[in-house]
Design goal:
The structure holds 3 protein chains of 3 kinds.
Chain A: H1 12-32, H2 36-57, H3 66-83, H4 88-110, H5 115-135, H6 137-140, E1 153-156, E2 159-162, H7 166-189, H8 191-201, H9 203-209, H10 213-239, H11 249-262, H12 268-285, H13 288-293, H14 295-310, H15 314-328
Antiparallel strand pairs in A: 1-2
Chain B: H1 2-26, E1 36-43, H2 50-66, E2 70-71, E3 74-82, H3 87-101, E4 105-108, H4 112-125, E5 129-132, E6 148-150, H5 155-169, E7 175-181, H6 184-200, E8 203-210, H7 218-226, E9 231-235, H8 239-250, H9 253-256, E10 258-261, H10 266-272, H11 274-277, E11 281-284, H12 293-306, H13 312-331, H14 336-344, E12 348-351, E13 354-359, E14 364-366, E15 369-374, E16 387-393
Parallel strand pairs in B: 1-3, 1-4, 4-5, 5-6, 7-8, 7-9, 9-10
Antiparallel strand pairs in B: 2-3, 11-15, 12-13, 13-14, 15-16
Chain C: H1 4-35, H2 42-59, H3 65-87, H4 97-119, E1 135-137, E2 142-144, H5 145-166, H6 169-179, H7 181-186, H8 191-213, H9 224-239, H10 244-264, H11 271-283
Antiparallel strand pairs in C: 1-2
The chains are: A mainly alpha, B alpha/beta, C mainly alpha.
Chain lengths: 329, 413, 295
């Protein structure tokens, strides 16, 4: 790591090129996938996974509250769309903002602790939010969830896009995802990001240099919450339904698993993890014999074990290892 | 640029290759062959309701094998998906199956929360014919649509038919306490039970709501025992049903009051055992010992193919296949626009509980709902002989009763 | 409805459930405290314990086959534990928490779904031994015999394990290997073997808990381990990681809190556990009787 805290100076094109390459890969991916709905879902689920990676890989915080923050975004957008018929972009912004507000509160209480205790506190908060959603039947629908969300035409003043076809929606999600990816990449290379990573290595040193680790971690936590909110709002649009299960701790666990599967120390891990996880879960569900016996979960479990035993850096780390091995030869 | 190559392009292409290979493998010639219809089962195969899901799948396979995977002039392709008992997952699998396989019929499971969410999607996509099995009254009522049909009785019927027969049997029951699941289905059931009790002037001491994930209900049993009620109404389903009935027996509730469970699916009774069931009253849609031709034949065939006695869930899935096959053969069409009116005009037919008929205004099949009594271990003639039928009722919403008709104007077909 | 006998019976329910959870949590806590492993597969060990008892009962036809089954289950579970430790967890010592979680969670799925494939998804009956049916009078109220019995047996086992770890010579070796493995090694302790046997002990305790609890749940299913795991985990966190007395205290507190919530606002009975965990973590991060620092 460089000692200077300046943002790297790069040309506009150099900044944009990885995103363009990603777009060039992701757009055709849509046509390759066996299910057309899956494409958008992979991207949407990669968003909270990205938040998880930002917090774990770059800040050292193990956040088990991602599921509830994701659900807050989904419920906010879902309720606004289903009951108040607001503009789609407005609903997304509201979802992001709401998750941000919740994560400010959550962060305030949790950030004082570190390591496993922090993880468990976020888990407790996650269940608190789940419980509120479950019990507040008049507002959130309780166990019924939110029905009647409609993904329709997005009016943007000059022109409008119909989001109903899966491909259009996929492109819409892809644009947002790439913007987010750019932002996060920029963030971790900024002075702020360098401080975070410095604290991950040694909190004591960061404190000695004069940074207040709690404030920095809190801000990182809130950014993570905002990202989850974006994912949630898009998910409400994607499924046209929001259920309480999104806020349950098992959803948080799922994001964590996706991150670990992909690789926690690199941002692309989110996309790879989410892609492989969703693809596998779906693929295994296709065989009646497997679906009937619930054997998809069995294979998934075996894959987790294999990843931990042999591909510690997740799939990304594994591929990198293989690539480096061949390059050396 | 080298680092970008290693970081993105290579993993990306590997990923795409994997997708491509497996994608090609998994969808061999996805184009629908002419004269083929797709029968999709989107059911709960993992989680606490897994046992029922498998039973329903077996019954469907049994029917299709018998008919050589043919319905009228069409070949039937069976597609299976797991909802994992989560509404969000169920909705996704359903949307995906509709988009990909273009099924004519989607046959689904019995978790009300999942079913309500799925019915909403079916209404939006104006999609395939949807056979649901959730017991929530709204599924063929306020939240129903032109595509959704149901054989399972709604909570309205379950509460009125079975509970009324039970209360008729024991006129000296004056105070009751009930335990219900803290879930969409439980709230609906609790309301319906309350309505029946109100009609009869019976006092409801308390409604206990128990989370579906609970593993110990001793607290509720002690409370019920100390409440001084004359009867305990248990409205549990799935894993918690076994826990509830077993612990009610263990705490000796049968000795101080009548115990009546609103559910009683066979595969769940297997887990509880006759010692606990003895003297309890239960209720179910169907029983394998029903003395009619349909049941006798079905039980025989099912037992031969799968080696076990089927429960109510298997019977209703078999009936669904039977009805659809009959109509497809009759109309010679695989078009929902033809089949839905035909289903509505179905009228009376021989079903698992005897003569049954379709209430066209509601898309609900009207049939008897049974009251059962748990047999003592010494009364049992064979292993699965847990209960005997002691009563039945057939109380369904009447046409015009408020809140039970769906908005037909939305789907003129 | 505020009868003293009902309240007393509810307290008993709380303690009984708490002791049972503590029995499972003892294993979990032991594995965490000694090996530093967060074992998500503990719930599935509980589940296979119950299935082992069922299998033994099917194969045997002797009087008291439940107890025989329970006793046979103990070494079987220890063997399962040995294999898990030997082939998988051995590589996890000192690794980041997230990898342990991913690995043990994967193990949980594998075990759970394998059981579903082998035994099927239909609930299997496991009734209680007939001599333990019925209730016994405890002065003010009557209480199920079997529950009372599991409570006493559970307490005895937890005490036994505590005595073994804290007071016996072998226990001293285990504690030494956990606290200062380097010194223990130089003193000639085979720490590897100690870890393996500690894990086997934890597994056997989980299996025993599963077997004891099985007659109360009305049908074995492959999913019974998941919910119990979470409760055990919370018990361990409340009591303090690695503390056996803490596990017992945490279990009883949780059992009673759950019971009270069940009477007044039943839907909250799951949530109060998380609330209790959150509050305790904020006030006393190492848990009620935990030894460690804030980490």
């Amino acid at each position: 790591m460089k000692s200077e805290l300046n943002a790297p100076q790069r040309s506009f094109m150099a900044e944009l090129s990885p995103v363009l390459i990603m777009a060039a890969i992701l757009v055709p991916t849509y046509f390759v996938l066996p299910s057309k709905m899956m494409a958008a879902e992979i991207l949407i689920m990669a968003i909270p996974t990205l938040s998880f990676i930002l917090l774990l890989g770059y800040t050292g915080l193990l956040n088990f509250g991602t599921g509830s923050l994701f659900a807050v975004g989904a419920y906010t957008a879902g309720i606004l769309l289903a009951r108040h018929n607001v503009h789609i972009l407005l609903a997304i912004i509201a979802g992001v903002a709401m998750s941000g507000i919740i994560s400010i509160i959550m962060g305030y209480f949790c950030i004082k602790r570190v390591g496993l205790i922090f993880a468990l506190l976020t888990l407790a908060f996650n269940q608190l939010i789940w419980f509120i959603i479950w019990q507040w039947k008049s507002f959130t629908g309780g166990p019924d969830g939110i029905w009647g969300i409609k993904r329709e035409i997005l009016e943007l003043g000059i022109f409008s896009i119909n989001l109903k076809p899966t491909f259009n929606f996929y492109i819409f999600v892809l644009i947002l995802f790439l913007l987010l990816f750019l932002f996060v990449r920029r963030l971790i290379e900024s002075p702020f990001g360098k401080v975070l990573m410095g604290m991950r290595e040694s909190e004591l040193r960061a404190t000695a240099i004069g940074y207040n680790p709690e404030t920095y971690k809190w801000i990182a936590f809130i950014i993570g919450g905002l990202i989850c909110g974006l994912g949630g709002a898009l998910f409400a649009l994607h499924q046209e339904y929001v259920g309480e299960h999104l806020a349950h701790w098992s959803t948080s666990g799922e994001f964590a698993i996706k991150a670990l599967l992909g690789g926690t120390f690199v941002l692309h891990g989110a996309l790879i993890g989410s892609g492989v996880f969703i693809f596998l879960a779906d693929f295994l569900n296709r065989f009646p014999v497997l679906a009937k016996a619930g054997a998809g979960l069995l294979v998934l479990g075996a894959i987790f074990i294999l990843v931990v035993m042999f591909f510690r850096g997740g799939i990304y780390g594994g591929v990198e290892k293989v690539y480096n091995f061949f390059r050396k030869k | 640029m080298k680092s970008i190559m290693t970081k993105i392009v290579i993993p990306g292409f590997i990923l795409m290759l994997v997708f491509l290979c497996t994608g090609l493998l998994s969808t061999p010639a996805a184009q629908a062959v002419e004269k083929e219809i797709v029968w999709a089962i989107v059911d709960d195969f993992s989680g606490p309701f897994a046992a029922t899901g498998v039973e329903g799948h077996n019954a469907t396979v049994l029917f299709l094998e018998e008919h050589n995977y043919k319905m009228g002039p069409y070949t039937v392709k069976l597609v299976t998906r797991d909802t994992e008992l989560k509404p969000a997952v169920g909705v996704r699998r359903l949307q995906e199956v509709i988009a990909e396989a273009k099924p004519l019929i989607v046959s689904s499971g019995n978790s009300s929360a999942v079913q309500l969410a799925m019915a909403d999607i079916i209404g939006k996509t104006k999609g395939p014919i949807f056979w649901t099995d959730g017991w929530d009254t709204r599924l063929t009522g306020a939240n129903g649509n032109r595509y959704t049909f149901r054989w399972a009785s709604p909570n309205y019927t379950i509460a009125r038919s079975a509970l009324s027969s039970f209360l008729d049997k024991f006129p000296d029951v004056k105070k009751v306490i009930q335990i219900q699941m803290d879930y969409a289905w439980g709230y609906d059931m609790a309301e319906n039970v309350e309505a029946v009790l109100k009609e009869r002037g019976i006092k409801l001491l308390k409604t206990q709501y128990v989370p579906a994930t609970a593993i110990d209900v001793s607290v509720f049993m002690t409370e019920a025992k100390g409440s001084g009620a004359d009867a305990y109404i248990i409205g549990l389903y799935g894993k918690i049903f076994g826990i509830g009935l077993r612990q009610a027996h263990e705490f000796g509730l049968k000795k101080v009051m009548k115990v009546f469970s609103i559910t009683g699916t066979l595969n769940m009774l297997r887990g509880i055992g006759s010692d606990a069931l003895e003297g309890m009253y239960l209720a179910d849609h169907w029983n394998h010992a029903m003395p009619n031709e349909w049941s006798r034949k079905f039980v025989e065939k099912y037992k031969k193919r799968w080696g076990v006695i089927p429960g109510d869930y298997a019977a209703k899935k078999y009936l669904e296949c039977q009805l659809m096959e009959r109509l497809i053969k009759h109309t010679g069409s695989a078009d929902p626009k033809v089949l839905i009116p035909a289903l509505e005009k179905l009228g009376e037919f021989d079903g698992p509980t005897g003569k049954e008929n379709m209430a066209a205004w509601q898309h609900q099949i009207v049939h008897d709902f049974l009251l059962l009594r748990g047999k003592a271990p010494r009364e049992k003639a064979y292993e699965d002989d847990y209960v005997e039928v002691v009563g039945a009722g057939r109380i369904y919403p009447r046409q015009g009763e408020k809140g039970f008709e769906f908005d037909r104007t939305k789907d003129p077909l | 409805m505020v009868n003293i006998d009902v309240i007393l019976a509810q307290v008993f329910n709380g303690i009984q459930f708490g002791v049972l959870m503590a029995l499972l949590a003892t294993g979990l806590s032991l594995i965490f405290g000694m090996l530093g492993i967060i074992n998500f597969a503990h719930g599935s060990l509980y589940m296979i314990g119950a299935y082992f008892v069922w299998t033994c009962m099917q194969m045997l036809n002797v009087p008291g086959k439940f107890w025989v089954g329970l006793i046979i289950t103990l070494p079987l579970m220890a063997i399962v534990g040995l294999m898990i430790e030997r082939f998988l967890l051995r590589w996890m010592y000192g690794q980041p928490v997230v990898y342990q979680i991913l690995l043990t969670f994967g193990l949980l799925l594998v075990i759970q779904q394998s059981v579903a494939l082998i035994y099927g998804t239909t609930p299997l009956p496991l009734g209680m031994p007939s001599s333990f049916e019925g209730e016994i009078s405890l002065g003010l109220f009557r209480y199920p015999v079997y529950r009372l019995f599991t409570m006493i047996l559970g307490l005895a086992i937890i005490f036994g394990v505590w005595y073994f770890i804290e007071r016996s010579a072998l226990g001293a070796i285990i504690r030494a290997s956990a606290e200062d493995p380097e010194t223990a090694k130089t003193l000639g302790v085979n720490t590897r073997r100690v870890y393996t046997w500690t894990f086997a002990l934890g597994s056997a305790l989980a299996g025993l808990g599963g077997g004891l609890h099985a007659p109360l749940i009305g049908g074995l299913q492959h999913t019974i381990g998941t919910e119990i795991l979470l409760i055990c985990f919370i018990v361990v966190v409340i009591g303090g990681m690695g503390s056996i007395r803490g596990a017992l205290l945490g279990g009883i507190i949780l059992g009673i809190v759950r019971g009270i919530a069940g009477v007044f606002w039943a839907p909250a009975s799951d949530f109060v556990m998380f609330a209790a965990m959150g509050i305790i973590l904020m006030i006393r991060p190492q848990g009620l009787l935990g030894r460690g620092g804030t980490r």
